[in-house]
Amino acid sequence: MQTFDLSRLLAEAKAKDQAWLEFLRVPSLSMGIYRLKAGQADQQRPHTEDEVYYVVSGKASFRAGDEMQAVAPGTLIFVERSVVHRFYDISEELTVLVFFAPPEGSLKDGATK
C-alpha cells in the first residue's frame, strides 16, 4: 500500500514551480499534479493513454474534441486516449490531479493496451 498527503504533494509541486509532478507510477496507472497559472497557456498534446482529471482548485474552461466545459473545484473529466484536449481561459490558478491508465507514455511507439 502507498498513501499520499495531498497538501504535501501540492506544496512540493509549488516549491519546484513545475507544471507537472508525477507522484505515482505502477504497471496499471500513473498519477500526478498538473498546475497552470492564471492566463497561462496549456501546451499539452494528446496522450496515448486514457486519463481522468480531478480539479482540486482554480477555474478555467476545458475543451476535448468539439466539446467545451467550464471547470472548477470538484469537476471530474474523462478523456479518451488520442483526443485533442486542453485547459484554456484559466482565470484562477488551476491545480488538477491527473490519472493515466495505463501509465503516461506507456503506449507510445506502437505499444498496445
Largest sheet: 6 strands, antiparallel
Helix content estimate: under 10%
Please give the radius of gyration in angstroms: 14 Å
Please identify the structural class as seen in this structure.
mainly beta
Task: Choose one word for the global shape.
Answer: globular
What letter string, H or E per element, gives the SSE order?
HEEEEEE
Distance N to C terminus: 24 Å
Unreliable segments (pLDDT under 50, ≥5 consecutive)? none
Number of helices: 1
Q: Give the mean pLDDT.
A: 94
Please state roughly what percent of the residues sit in beta strands, choosing from under 5%, 5-15%, 15-25%, 25-35%, 35-45% or over 45%.
Answer: over 45%
Work out the number of β strands.
6
Secondary-structure topology with pairs:
Blueprint (H helix, E strand, L loop, with lengths): L5 H11 L3 E7 L2 E8 L13 E15 L2 E5 L4 E4 L5 E17 L12
Antiparallel strand pairs: 1-2, 2-6, 3-4, 3-5, 3-6
